Structures are given as C-alpha cells and as structure tokens.
Amino acid sequence: MKFDTPAGTNPIDQLKVVGKPTDRIDGPLKVCGQAPYAYEQPAPNAAYGYVVGAAIAKGRIEAIDLTAAKAAPGVLAIITADNAGKLEKGNFNTARLLGGPEIQHYHQAVALVVAETFEQARAAAALVRVDYARGKGAFDLHAAKDSAQPSREQADLKLGDFAAAFASAPVTIDATYHTPDQAHAMMEPHASIAAWEGDQLTLWTANQMINWGRGDVARTLGIPREKVRLVSPYIGGGFGGKLFVRADAILAALGAKAAGRPVKVALTRPLMFNNTPHRPATIQRIRLGATREGKITAIGHENWSGDLPGGGIENGVQQTRFLYAGENRMLQCRLAVLDLPEGNAMRAPGEAPGMMALEIAIDEMAEKLGIDPVEFRILNDTQVVPEDPPKPFSQRQLVECLRQGAERFGWSKRSATPASVRDGQWLVGMGVAAGFRNAPTMKSAARVRLAADGRVTVETDMTDIGTGTYTIIAQTAAETMGVPLDRVDVRLGDSTFPVSAGSGGQWGAASSTSGVYVACMKLRETVAQKLGLDPATVTFSSGRVRSGRRSVALGDAARDGEIVVEDAIEFGDLARRYQQSTFAGHFVEAAVHAHTGEMRVRRMLAVCAAGRILNPKSARSQVIGAMTMAVGAALMEELAVDKRFGFFVNHDLAGYEVPVHADIPHQECIFLDEADPLSSPMKAKGVGELGICGVAAAVANAVYNATGVRVREYPITLDKFFERLPTA
Ligand code: MOS
Predict the structure, then answer these.
(1) Cis peptide bond N-terminal to 726, omega within 30
(2) Looking at residue 688, which CATH number applies to its domain?
C-alpha cells in the first residue's frame, strides 16, 4: 500500500494495545539467557576464526609468513588477501574489510586464522608474521582542515545574505566547537557464524539492516543474492555500528568455505574500536547575529570532518536547516581525507554532534542578549522550514516541549548568573537545550499468518537491536486483528522474510509497524471474504469477527488451512511535502565540586514530541538510554587519536569509558500526547535517536551555569576547566 494521503481514523486509534506501556515480549528470554545472539546460534561442528588486525595505519604489506601459524595445533585454514579472491564493493567499501597488500587503516583485517577451537585460533594468529612498509598518512583533523573539500552529500546552503546580516547585526557570537571521535561501544561485539551448504551461504550475524547486509555479502563475494541468507533475531545493540556487514561476516564466509565447515567469528573488543567504524570528530564554527530584542537574523554554521578516501561527512549542520528562524543563512560541510579508521553512522549521525555545538551557541547567544535560554529558543521558533520555498512541518511542538519541560523541571529556580548557586562544596547549575532529529520513513513489508486456533504470526526481516521491536510489532498486529497480545507471534531478522525498513535512522519503529499494519489490514479483508462477512461493517475484537448479528471466532477463517498474506507500505509524497521531524526539550541539573572539579549530573528531564508513542515503556527506555549515552558524549567519551601512528589509543572499555544509568540519580522522560497522521498510518515517528540530540549541550550549559566556565571542546573533562574554576 502506498501511503500518500493523511491517515484517517483506523483500527490503531482504538489504542487498546498500542500506546499502552507494555513489557517486552522477548524480555524473559533475554533475562534468562535464552535469546540466541549471533555467536550463540547452534552450529554443529563449527570451527573458530580469529581476526588479525593491521599493525600500521597506512602502507603496504611487504610479506606475510604463515609457516608457523599453519603448523600450530588445530589450524584448519588461513585467509589473507592472497587467497581470498577479489572482494567487490558493496553498499559501502566492503572490499576494505580485508586489507592487503595495501593497508588503509589501523587494525584493518589482514588475516583470519581458522582453527578447531577459539584458543587455538588465537594462539596461531599470534604466530602470523607480517612485514609492513609504513606509509605516510593524515591523522589529524585540525591539520587537514584547510584541505577539506565540499561533499556531494550536503550541498552548501545559502539563504539571503549571511555575511551582510552578520556584519550588521547588533549582537553577534562567533565560536568554534569541537566534538571528538566516538565509539558505538555496544554490548554485543560484531559476531557471525557462516555455514555453506553447497553454494548456499547462511550467515547468523549481528546486523541492523538484513536486506542491505544480504546484498552486500552477495556483491562482495560475487555470488547471487538468492544464495545468501542472513539471520539476526537478537542483536545486543548497534547504534549504527551494525548498519553494514563488517569483517566478521565476510571473513566468516570465506573461512567457512576454506575450512569446509561452519566458522564462528567474533571481533574481540580491543579490535573493534579501530577495525569497525566510529563517529567522526567535527570542528564546527557557528556565527549567530541577532537584534537586541533577540530575533536571530543571521545563522552561519560550518562543519569540518574527515574520513578515509571516498568516505562521507559527519553532517553537523543537518539540524541547523530546521531548528530556528532567521532570514540569512549559510550552512556548509567540508570533508578532509584522513587515514584513521572508517567514519560512519552512529546514533543520530549529523544531529548528535551538530546539536552538541549549536545548542551551546544558542545558550551563549541568549546569555549575551540577557534573555532566558528557554525564552530565546521560543522567540526564534519557526513553524516552517526556513527555506525558499518554506516547507511545513508535519507536526512541530518544540515550544510545548520547552514550556512543559521548564515547568516540570523547576526552571524558574535557575539563577541566570553563572557560579552563583552553592550546595555545600558543590557549584550547582541548570542547563537547557532543544532536541531535534529528523524522522525518515522507509518502505517496509511484512507477512502475516492466521492459524485455525486464532493465533497470528508476523514475519518480517525487521530487526530488534534492543529497542523493543518485537513488542511494538506484536502490539500492532494485536490491535489490528483484535486479539490479545499473547495470541501474536513475531518472527524477525531473517532474510527469508519480507524486506522491512530495518533498524536505522530512527525510522524503524514507525516504518516497520506500518508495514505490519497494512499486511494485517489485508488479512482482515481476506478473513471477511472467507467468512462471507461484509467488509464495510466487519469488526475485529476479543478474538472474534463480527458483522451485523454474526459473530465468528477469528480462527474459523483459517479452518481450511492457514491464511497467509503479505503487504508492504511505501511512503509517497507526504514525506516530501512535509518536513517530518521529532522535537524535545532537554533539561539538566549538574553539580561541580568547587575544589576538586568532580562533576555530577544530578537530574535530567526530556520532554519529547515524536508522534504517537507505540509503547511508552520501551520508548522511555530508548530515551533514557540515549540521555545516558549523551552524558558520555558530554563528559567522558573520546577516542584518543595517536596522531603519529594513526590509531585510536583507548581501544577497549577500560580506556573508552561510558556512563551507565546508575551514574545519574534522576532521569525523567515525558512524551507529549501527539499523533501525526502525515507521518504514517501508525501516526508514529521515532524516539531512539531524538533522545541523544541536544542532551550533551544541555549538560555543557548546566556545567557553565554551575561554574561560569564555558568549555567548547567535548568531552568536558577536568583538564579543560579546572584551572578556571571560581576560587572558593
Ligand atoms: Mo542509526 S546511526 O542510522 O543505526
């Protein structure tokens, strides 16, 4: 079905199941350790593969000596570029997943050692001797900044006359912000099991986008996509790091072929940070001009990031197109070539680092104007995308998010004078930021089956990366078919199922449930037909189908055999005619110890406007998880670049520290009561990425309010502000 007119009243609006806080249906399996992740799938007779990562960042392999490794106990096969055959490019540069003789980045895989046991593979891998000729690489974004070039991904955006408006504005700021390279650091490492039956490959692999992955594996190995099956029913977090297949998947496939048996490959944690992609660092210069009354007249936002040759930008200006009014605008991104590991999508690519800079700049401007930062944002709200021609938002309640948030958080108690509030030895401050993330939609298909006992089974290649997909899909089917939740079975993450939107860009929830919804609507038609009921008056509830005086058990329609239907939702013109975005108001209270500089996030509140919330319980988990992740971005997380040798030094979870929920005593998340009929038949959008966008800046603004020290370089660590702390 094509979604190209606004959704009218439909069965989802009953909200008997959808919209109710619902426990995860996969929860018990997960807490009992019974949900099989990729590496835990049954694979009889499997051998183990261990990846050897390049010890240089750029250069060539001069020679590989495998003699000792081959002779080691248990070794079955060793894959290198010499025997792997030519790897083709997939959706992204999958050919790069096995390096040699050219080396493109540190810890790029150069060999896979396959052995009977994991320990044997690891021991033999240590015996692989590689001689390198080290080349000269570029590893420093600051040094490469001036060589950065425009990128096709984001054209320069010019509106009005930014230079003139900025020059003549009575109040201006011009500041440069830095966000570091960051790691996804998801719990489950990249892991795959590959098994061949003849020329048919099955890969159990941790992957967010089954259909992309299937295509990439097929293209990379040069085999037809029909010969590749991907299975990924449970995924222990992705954050974008599993949008594409990685070395574990491709090397497991090659290793299994060479060994003639299934092969299991998991990337070790210390390998992941340099072998797999990361969120690239940015340098962002923001210039704002405003009238004395606080109306923004000029917005300039320039963003620099780097990536491997042929790579992409980290689009820090993405939200600046949409968030605030202002007639004169200049936005641009520049891309430098760096020889660090691959930069790629991490939770809210673009907006997450973009908001980290923009929302400090807005705070700085509000202070300079002497206007409350909540009011300053409200004053510069826009109800259309400020471009030519202006485009309406499908829905935009940023002002409401900020107002409700301020009210709930006790914002009126904030002192506008920095470093003026003390709680014993602690300096206490409050910060605010807007939250913004676009809400794209993607075509999504599903198959639904109705059995004679009235059970409904949904099958789609959609993934649940820890987000709650199983549950919202079950809720959707239960609501549409009029059955209790426990009469629905959901089967996900298998390329033999219809192609879904997959999990990415916070499009997963709205798109995949919409696909399930249209498939269920088709099933309703089929059921009415089979039972000879008038499709115009038929209703589905409590496991029964009713029309006029007739009431029949739903399962009766399948008396003569299971009914199977399939449909897909496609998103038409509405997604182009209306800007579909999600909004939030983020509030943070921070305390900084006056003598030691120790920092504590005491309270956080997010008020979100993101269309209909399908499951307030899992949506809340998404948002508070994202808020916690953003505290990491604000205060802790940074991949430290060794600029001489070109690698991330802190490549494990001891050196790359992330916060946990226990670090923050109070986190609250409120959803505005919204339903967006322009977004999808579900009237839903997404929250998984909204929750991270803006939060780090709210933390930074709270730290500033507490201490009077403005740090423009994330993460806000002690060394950057300690000497500037007010003396006690
Ligand atoms: Mo998201 S970074 O598109 O998984």
Answers:
(1) no
(2) 3.30.365.10
